[in-house]
TrEMBL record:
The name this protein goes by in its record: Restriction endonuclease
Gene3D superfamilies xref list: 1.10.30.50
Molecular function in Gene Ontology: endonuclease activity; nucleic acid binding; zinc ion binding
Organism: Mammaliicoccus stepanovicii
KW Amino-acid biosynthesis (keyword) present: no
């Protein structure tokens, strides 16, 4: 078929077509004018599988990248793609304001199924696909939704071998008790790392009455009891491992001489080895391309460190950058 026909059949803009050519889209002639549809599809499928393989656990991707990699839709928490034989699951701390969410119990994520109102069912669309995953062999991939258009790749997942999918009672968005399906999932990536000092941001919730807060807390307690005795659930955070150089860390702390470089107060306590307890913060985050270098590092007390990440205040950041500049000058 001709180039114009192919563009039409692929349903892509001409600019995207040139991108595909650069990526190696096969053509019958060597002038990229005539194409064989079967060859093109074969090539596209391989490219998608390669893209999936190249995903890095802990790395953050945009929604467009998810769509492009898996050839899935751009919306929804469970996205099926026949084209790449995959099911993309999105987990979030909060799903559509429902109080009960996906929860980690040890290494297992109890993932909530589809359906915001009324009873959920194992027979419903993607719930069915996931429930029958042992039979249908669809590849399942898990992402964590962070903020607008930021999805952290957690890795390929499978249904837990030990805990079967189950149904429990939870409230829907209207506060009505209903059946909810849960899929205990296990991560298949071996080299994921649990970040130890993640500072969780408190979510802004509208003001609620004390009575409401109490009601929700007890409802949540009852649920936690019913699932796993009284074991607390914790949220596992998958992250890329960044090499933080020990020498840089030590040097930065020495420069600070036991004083937090933001509030300028003494470190809150001394460690067992007598060193003042300070955190080393990367002014430009490593996760956002910052480097683990002397000129990007500064020592902070734990309070100020938490404040920096919580508020991300430009004034604080500028103050730290200013101190680093002065430090450089006096080297
Ligand atoms: Zn401080
Ligand atoms: Zn930090």
């Amino acid at each position: 078929m001709k180039k114009s026909e192919l563009i039409k059949k692929l349903n892509i803009p001409p600019a995207k077509f040139n991108e595909l050519i650069e990526l190696g889209l096969p053509s019958v002639d060597d002038k990229q004018k005539t194409f064989d549809w079967d060859e093109v599809i074969k090539w596209k499928k391989t490219t998608n599988q390669e893209k999936i393989k190249k995903l890095v656990a802990g790395k953050i991707y945009k929604n467009e990248e998810l769509v492009d990699t898996f050839a899935c839709t751009s919306q929804g928490g469970m996205r099926r793609s026949h084209y790449t034989n995959s099911l993309v699951l999105i987990t979030a701390e909060k799903k559509a304001n429902i109080i009960y969410q996906d929860k980690w119990f040890g290494d297992t994520l109890h993932y909530t199924g589809m359906g915001q109102k009324g009873d959920q069912s194992f027979e419903y669309t993607q719930n069915k696909v996931l429930k029958n995953n042992d039979i249908n062999k669809v590849n399942v991939y898990l992402f964590e939704y962070l903020t607008k258009n930021k999805y952290k790749y957690i890795g390929p997942v499978k249904l837990s071998k030990n805990i079967k999918p189950y149904i429990i009672k939870e409230m829907d968005i209207d506060g009505i008790n209903r059946n909810v399906v849960k899929f205990p999932l296990e991560i298949q990536t071996e080299n994921y790392i649990i970040e130890k000092d993640v500072i969780n941001k408190e979510e802004k919730t509208p003001r609620q009455s004390e009575e409401d807060i109490k009601k929700k807390a007890f409802a949540a307690s009852n649920l936690n009891k019913s699932i796993k005795g009284e074991t607390a659930s914790f949220r596992k955070v998958i992250t890329r491992s960044y090499d933080r150089n020990k020498d840089i860390n030590l040097y930065i702390k020495n420069l600070a001489n036991g004083i937090c470089q933001l509030c300028m107060k003494d470190a809150p306590f001394k460690q067992k080895n007598g060193e003042p307890f300070l955190h080393v913060h990367h002014v430009k985050y490593l996760s956002e391309g910052g480097t683990d270098t002397v000129d990007n590092c500064i020592a902070l007390c734990p309070n100020c460190h938490a404040k920096i990440h919580e508020l991300e205040d430009e004034n604080d950041k500028n103050k730290l950058l200013h101190i680093i500049e002065n430090r450089k000058a006096s080297d």
